[in-house]
Every structure is written in C-alpha cells, then in structure tokens.
Amino acid sequence: MWTSLKMTHLYQRVAHRVDAWQADGYPSEEFPAIGEILGWAKVPELGNLRFLRLPQLRALETYWYLRLVQKTPHVFDLYDRLFPPDKDLPGLLEALGVPDAACKTGRQSNEPTYPR
Questions:
Q1: Alpha helices, DSSP H only, in the chain?
Q2: Which residues contact 15 (CB under 8 A, 6 or more apart)?
Q3: Which one, 8, 50, 52, 95, has least CB within 10 Å?
Q4: pTM of the model
C-alpha cells in the first residue's frame, strides 16, 4: 500500500510498519493475547470487522505496535529509528519540517540539538 509513495512523515512510516506487523499476525512473545484480540476483530473468511469500526481498530493496532514492538519509545527515539540520521538525514529533516536553508546556514554538527 505505502511502498509506491514517498514516506516523508512519521505517521506514514509507522503505518507501514503496523501493516507489516498485522500481516505477520501481530507477533508478540510477551503478550500473545494482544495478537489474538486484534486478530479476533476481523472475520477471517470475509475480512469484515466484528465489533469495531476500521479507524478504531487501526488506532488499537498502532497503539499496541508502539507499545509492544517499539517498546513505547520517546518521540525523538521513534524518529531516529524510522528516519535513521546516518542513512536518511534528508528524510529526517523533511519529516521534522526543517527547511533546507536552515541546514545550510545552521551549525554543522552531528550532535543532537535537543536535550536527552
């Protein structure tokens, strides 16, 4: 679904990973019941939803993906994981909304500018 699009925003990359997690059957060694519950939300033969609307299910999938798979990261850590600065610095800057001009005139350091 997302592979043909340029993924410039955090929500797009998270959604892509949630899609992959869903396709794998929501694997979680620590909390397998979450996968069972999310899987139960759809009728397997028809693909219809049982009790929730699609946006509700999508919100739950995203929440549990961030909790179980990503281990509830700080938002800066999530950006670092999904837009690795050493591999995709232009993508990271674009996702953060930093204009090119700011990078060309700003300080040239690999040190983070935000406190940890």
A1: 10-23, 32-40, 54-64, 75-82, 85-96, 100-105
A2: 2, 62
A3: 50
A4: 0.79
31, 68 contact by CB (below 8 A): yes
Q: Is residue 2 part of a domain?
A: no
CA distances for 1 relative to 5, 19, 27, 36, 61, angstroms: 8, 9, 21, 24, 17
Residues 6+ apart with CB under 8 A from 2: 12, 15, 16, 19
Asked if residue 113 belongs to a domain, the reply is: no
Query: Token pair for residue 73?
Result: 């990261």
Residue 1 in domain: no
Is 110 among the domain residues?
no
Look-up of token digits 């935000």: 114
